[in-house]
């Protein structure tokens, strides 16, 4: 949640760019810089923080689960002497999938609330907050509507966990062994930046597909897309393969500092917990 406070505006811009030019329509923005100018002009500063309550809830459910479960599993594997690359990869993907499944409703709320400002006034959903969004989605689209795009969300989370958490751990070990860096703030920052690059490049395509599925309109009970395959083929045919990396600059700018802040906050909170509770036991 601490990380989200700083990077949420980039999350909003990322979603706007990912949805721009959908199905070959005219793009909302010429480029990333133009997107910033348009939002600042039309939606003021508050527009950059639309959906922040949903993002907070998503962090509580998704990030806590994926990072917490991953760390616990990795620690247990190390104790048993089974901390191999394959086992670590399985642990990271399985915990990512679990976290994604239980947090999909909050993920949909984030996408819809952050993207609402780009729609015509008559088409906006105008959710008042995360709980209002979840209640209305349940009412208008049924319980399955809260898990729309689950496959794409799970695949993205598995990719994210595999690339972000494992690359962070591997980068820490590499920097300590080859550059004699101590386990402190400098090491955490460098490792996080390396992790952010790997994570953003690998997971951006699934993030674009997930955003398109979760933002789609439901007309007379029928969705625009039947599933992730149709979204992917439609996107590639109408916008080209590189459209899978739409919004990448904002995605990376969100991921890089977001990853740094996430791991710095996590390491400091863990250190504080260990110093004040574990050592006393």
Short description:
The chain has 281 residues and is an all-alpha fold. Helices cover 73% and strands 1% of the residues.
Please describe what this structure looks like:
Helix 3 packs antiparallel against helix 4 (85-115), helix 6 (150-179) runs antiparallel to helix 7 (185-215) and helix 7 (185-215) crosses helix 9. A two-stranded antiparallel ribbon has the order 1-2. The chain contains nine helices and two strands, in the order H-H-H-H-H-H-H-E-E-H-H. The chain has helices at 2-19, 32-43, 52-79, 85-115, 130-141, 150-179, 185-215, 228-239, 248-278; strands at 218-219, 222-223. By secondary structure, it is an all-alpha fold.
Q: Topology, please?
A:
Elements: H1 2-19, H2 32-43, H3 52-79, H4 85-115, H5 130-141, H6 150-179, H7 185-215, E1 218-219, E2 222-223, H8 228-239, H9 248-278
Antiparallel strand pairs: 1-2
Helix pairs in contact: 1-9, 3-4, 4-6, 6-7, 7-9
Annotation, overall tally of beta strands: 2
With helices defined by DSSP (H or I, 4 residues minimum), what is the helix count? 9
Rounded to the nearest angstrom, the radius of gyration is 19 Å
**Series of H and E elements:** HHHHHHHEEHH
CA distance, first residue to last residue: 29 Å
- Arrangement of strands in the largest sheet: 1-2
Helix-residue proportion = over 70%
Multimerization state: single chain
Largest β-sheet summary: 2 strands, antiparallel
Hey, roughly how much beta strand do the residues contain?
Answer: under 5%
Low-confidence spans: pLDDT under 50, at least 5 residues? none
Shape assignment: globular
Average pLDDT: 88
The helix-and-strand class reads mainly alpha
């Amino acid at each position: 949640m601490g990380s989200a406070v700083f990077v949420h505006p980039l999350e909003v811009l990322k979603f706007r760019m990912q949805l721009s030019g959908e199905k070959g329509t005219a793009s909302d923005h010429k480029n990333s810089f133009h997107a910033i100018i348009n939002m600042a002009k039309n939606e003021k500063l508050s527009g950059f923080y639309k959906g922040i309550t949903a993002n907070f809830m998503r962090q509580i459910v998704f990030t806590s689960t994926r990072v917490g479960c991953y760390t616990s599993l990795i620690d247990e594997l190390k104790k048993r002497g089974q901390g191999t690359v394959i086992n670590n990869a399985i642990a990271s993907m399985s915990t990512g999938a679990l976290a994604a499944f239980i947090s999909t409703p909050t993920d949909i709320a984030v996408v819809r609330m952050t993207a609402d400002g780009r729609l015509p006034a008559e088409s906006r959903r105008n959710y008042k907050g995360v709980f209002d969004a979840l209640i209305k989605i349940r009412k208008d689209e049924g319980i399955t509507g809260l898990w729309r795009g689950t496959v794409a969300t799970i695949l993205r989370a598995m990719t994210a966990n595999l690339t972000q958490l494992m690359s962070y751990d591997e980068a820490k070990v590499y920097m300590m062994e080859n550059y004699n860096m101590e386990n402190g703030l400098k090491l955490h920052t460098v490792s996080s930046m390396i992790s952010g690059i790997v994570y953003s490049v690998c997971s951006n395509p699934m993030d674009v597909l997930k955003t398109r599925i979760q933002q789609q309109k439901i007309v007379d009970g029928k969705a625009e897309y039947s599933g992730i395959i149709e979204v992917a083929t439609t996107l590639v045919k109408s916008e080209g393969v590189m459209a899978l990396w739409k919004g990448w600059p904002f995605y990376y700018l969100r991921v890089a500092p977001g990853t740094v802040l996430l791991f710095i906050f996590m390491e400091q909170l863990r250190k504080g917990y260990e110093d004040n509770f574990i050592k006393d036991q």
